[in-house]
Design a protein that fits this description.
Elements (H helix, E strand, L loop, with lengths): L25 H20 L5 E6 L6 H13 L5 E6 L3 E6 L2 E6 L16 H13 L8 E6 L6 E5 L2 E5 L8 H5 L7 E7 L4 E8 L3
Parallel strand pairs: 1-2, 4-5, 5-7
Antiparallel strand pairs: 3-4, 6-7, 8-9
């Protein structure tokens, strides 16, 4: 979530103008994200496995996220890695026998679209899974991933899990003002044929 947290301009604001007052801004933030991703992908490629990278834009970086992913796609064009770079608000994929719907959670455009909160998310997500299941009838698990709120939580509803993912960004001036504090973290999810088997947290400090 929000890997290019304050990359929109040198003032360090979202695409809609919210000032973030983060340590890294503009091109400095873009280079940091590029460096971190190449270290991460190089380590996975060294294991010898194929990689399929799913990317979707968010309200902090907008089209810059796609630009970063297109740069990564060009950089790794001769490796066992493919990229699915989406400009949609929400998209889906299949992992083993699981349907995964994923979104940043807040739209990168002037349209003020957000994933519904709390119980309102249930009916919203179920319509997404009904559409996705048209091309995958034998799924065993369903997941809705979102990363806009910068904290981790897993909520179970009828027939699916709603997963909020943390961010590597940690705090900034905006979140401190609203008392929205969360430990900087990234997560990995290991799937087997039944669904998510394990969740691992990787914490970061400044």
């Amino acid at each position: 979530g929000d890997l290019l947290h304050s990359c929109g301009n040198n003032a360090g604001s979202t695409v809609k103008g919210t000032l973030l007052e983060s340590d890294n801004k503009g091109s400095k933030m873009f280079k940091l994200a590029l460096d971190v991703l190449t270290v991460f992908i190089d380590n996975i490629l060294s294991i010898g496995v194929d990689i399929h990278c799913l990317s979707i834009n968010g309200n902090h970086e907008g089209e810059l996220n796609s630009s970063l992913m297109f740069a990564m796609e060009k950089l790794y064009r001769n490796n066992n890695i493919t990229f699915d770079i989406s400009n949609k608000f929400i998209s889906n994929s299949i992992i083993n026998n699981s349907i995964v719907c994923y979104t940043h959670g807040a739209a990168p455009s002037e349209i003020k679209a957000k994933i519904p909160r709390a119980n309102k998310a249930q009916s919203y997500a179920q319509s997404l899974f009904l559409e996705a299941q048209k091309s995958f009838l034998s799924c065993k698990s369903r997941y809705l991933f979102s990363a806009d709120l910068h904290h981790q939580a897993i909520q179970e509803y009828n027939d699916f899990l709603y997963i909020l993912m943390p961010s590597i960004t940690g705090g900034d001036g905006y979140s401190d003002t609203l008392n929205l504090n969360s430990r900087a973290c990234q997560q990995t999810f290991l799937f087997d044929d039944e669904g998510i088997k394990t969740v691992n947290n990787y914490y970061f400090s400044k």
